[in-house]
Structure formats: structure tokens, C-alpha cells
Amino acid sequence: MARTPLVAGNWKMNLDHLEAIALVQQLVYHLERSDFEAVEVAVLPPFTDLRSIQTLIEGDRLPIALGAQDTHWEDAGAFTGEISPGMLARLHCRYVLAGHSERRALFGETDEIVNRKLQAILRHGMVPILCVGETLEEREAGRADEVVVGQLEGGLAAVTAEQAGDLVVAYEPVWAIGTGRTALPEDADAMCGLVRRTLAERFGQGIADGARVLYGGSVKPANAKALLTQPEVDGALVGGASISAEDFAVICRFPRL
Ligand code: 13P
Predict the structure, then answer these.
(1) For the chain (length 257 residues), average pLDDT per consecutive 10?
(2) Rg of the chain taking only CA atoms, in angstroms
(3) For ligand 1, atom 5, which residue shows the shortest CA distance?
(4) Which domains does the chain have, with CATH numbers?
(5) Is position 172 annotated as part of the catalytic site?
(6) What's the CA-to-centroid distance between 48 and ligand 1, angstroms?
(7) Separation between Cα atoms, residue 187 and residue 184, nearest integer Å
């Protein structure tokens, strides 16, 4: 099955709403219509930028999908400082990350919390990008596969095959995030293949064949082609390089590199 690759820029806690507008304007300047036909491009700005970027994308009819980096799982209530999935859906967010390793490591998110968030994202008609990946210690102990399968099973608990229709999973080895170190292309391919086999066991081959499995971790213009043209890799979740319009545009054009 032909899957349209997805290149999503996770800006993390970078760029205020004015910088965000400038970046998206530069990004579209660097990309051509044919680039957007070959690859789906998404940006995941901080919450305070979402409304500005939504207005820009819709006002100028830009072929860019909008996404958020996190959500609470409840629809409303006394959760000071949190953002609900309904609020994100109203801003026409198509994607929402669930279980980014920084949320897991720095904010104590367990598989159970990730699962609640993922279900909330689905309930509001958005597409979760479930992030999984092992630490260096886990890889060196030969436990990478077990950790990734465990995170998939935990994150996807109680999700039905019907709901998993457009699921996106990002394999992001923790040791490659923000370090300049990437997985070898063949290792990225093998881990994305493991993700797909796990989805096949859980939801059936049809869902697994349609799901996009991204690689994330120090994706840059120089390594994008080697990593993203692997058969099991359907695009990238890009951190640092996504806050440079030029670098992100080059990564979005990986099929042409
Ligand atoms: P870097 O591309 O900065 O390594 O970040 C990857 C990431 O965490 C994307 O979600």
C-alpha cells in the first residue's frame, strides 16, 4: 500500500506567535506545489501559536497540517494550566503528539497517561502521533524491542482497529533526540518494521499497512534522505531542524534529494 510520507515539525518550546508566522511564511516560500503533493507537511507549534498559525494556514489556504504537542485527557474542568482536546480540535488541529519522550522523562507521563491522552485525541476526531523509543541504557541492555513494544501496547490499550485507521507512530530513540546522533538507517528501518508488525498483531495487517511510522531523532538535511527512504520509514518527526525554515524545507523535500 502506498503511504504518503508525513514530515512533522515539533517546535518544542520555541518560537512565539510572531516568530511562528514568519517561519511558516518562509517555509511555504521554500516549497513548491509538487513538494506538498509528494509529502504531507505538518507543524506542531507551542499552544500560544496555534490560533495564529491556524489563521495563516486557513486564510492563505496553505497545504500545511496543524498539530499540537500535547493535550490533557479531560474535556474540561479544574485542571489549572492544561489545554483540552476539544480546544485543539476547535483550532482545527489535525495531529496531536502523545507520549513524547520529553513528556515521559521530564513530566512523569506513564503509558497509562499516554493512553488516556491518545483516547482523548481520537474522541475529538484528531490523529494521535504516538511517540515511542528506548533510552541508550535500554538499547545497550538489548531491551530496545521490548521497550518499544511495551510502549505501543500501553499507549494503544483499549483502542479499536476502527479507531486506529489513521494512526501515526513516531519511533524516536531517546539517545538520538537533540544529540546530533541518529540511528543507522537500517536500525531505524528495523525498529519501524517492528512497530508495524506490532500494529499488525494488534489491529490486523490492513491497518498496519496504512499506518505511518515516522523516525525522529536528529533528523537534519544531511541525513534525511538516507533515513527517510528506508522502506519501513514513512517520514520524520523533526525537532531542532524544524525551527529553521530552510532546513525543514530540505527535509520535506527528501524524496527529491
Ligand atoms: P531533534 O530533531 O531535535 O533531535 O528532536 C527530535 C524530536 O524529539 C522530535 O519530536
Answers:
(1) 92 98 98 97 98 98 98 98 98 98 98 98 98 96 98 98 95 95 95 98 97 97 97 98 98 95
(2) 17
(3) 239
(4) 6-256 (3.20.20.70)
(5) yes
(6) 20
(7) 5
